[in-house]
Amino acid sequence: MKHAPLVDQLINAFTCLPGVGPRSAQRMAYALLDRGRESGRRLGDALHAAMDGVQHCERCRNYAEAALCPVCDDPRRDASLVCIVATPGDVLAFEQSGEYRGQYFVLMGELSPLDGVGPRELGLDVLEQRLKEGQISELILATGTTVEGEATAHYVLDLAQDAGVGVSRIAQGVPMGGELEFVDGATLAQALKGRRPFDS
Predict the structure, then answer these.
(1) Where are the CATH 1.10.8 domain residues in the chain?
(2) What is the four-CA torsion angle of 60, 20, 110, 76, rounded to 10 degrees?
(3) 9-53 CATH
(4) Residue 72 burial (CB < 10 Å; 0-12/13-18/19+)?
(5) pLDDT tens profile 20-36
(6) Residues 76, 147: contact at Cβ < 8 Å?
(7) Which of 41, 123, 132, 178 has its CA 20 to 30 A from that of 113?
(8) How far apart are CA 162 and CA 158, in angstroms?
(9) In the predicted model, what is the mean pLDDT of residues 144-169?
């Protein structure tokens, strides 16, 4: 079936989103055109405002509407403690925990030479400069346990060691509420390596 050019344009626009194929895009377009015109207009306005108004924080690379994001601009945060994460979604997860009061550095990905993602694409030159400023005393690595995540963690470790900055890594292993019989062997091995004294 042929669509009108504007309908085709709308469907094709939705396919730029991850995990959205032609059929899903078509359903979204139809939903907005059939009964969501006002929602569609709000969506368009929000997209336009975000594309023009959101940039990267110049200190941590997270999304921001000004030179600094709200975390970097908050004087109550501990600027000597910086958590290295892959995505803005990771920052949100830490913030929702309510346990972390330091700052972040958002890589916006992980090292992947085959995909053309090197240290510069991850802003590691910016991190290196921050380390040289001498304000950071500890980096917390919170990258993934994939091959790319491990390579990224080791690269950051080298930068920190060159700057004389301490490095720790978040604990990994069995999730809260998890049953051991359903946990894979690699996760259990990681949990054993990261074990710590049991106290109250």
Answers:
(1) 9-53
(2) 20
(3) 1.10.8
(4) buried
(5) 999 999 999 999 999 88
(6) no
(7) 132
(8) 6
(9) 92
Strands (E), the chain: 55-56, 63-64, 78-85, 102-106, 138-141, 166-169
Pick from 54, 73, 52: nearest CA to 63: 54
Asked if 169 and 177 touch (Cβ cutoff 8 Å), the reply is no
Q: What is the pTM of this model?
A: 0.83
- Ranges of H-type helices in the chain: 5-14, 22-35, 37-53, 88-97, 124-132, 147-163, 185-193
pLDDT in tens, 58-76: 999 999 999 999 999 999 9
The CATH number of the domain covering residues in 63-169: 3.40.1360.10
Please say whether the beta carbons of 55 and 64 come within 8 A: yes
How far apart CA 122 and CA 105 sit, in angstroms, is 10
- Residue range(s) of every CATH 3.40.1360.10 domain in the chain: 63-169
pLDDT reading at 200 higher than 50: no
Burial of 97 (0-12, 13-18, 19+ CB in 10 A): exposed
**Integer Cα distance of 168 and 170 in angstroms:** 7
Task: Tell me how far apart the alpha carbons of residues 2 and 74 are, in angstroms, rounded to a whole number.
Answer: 53
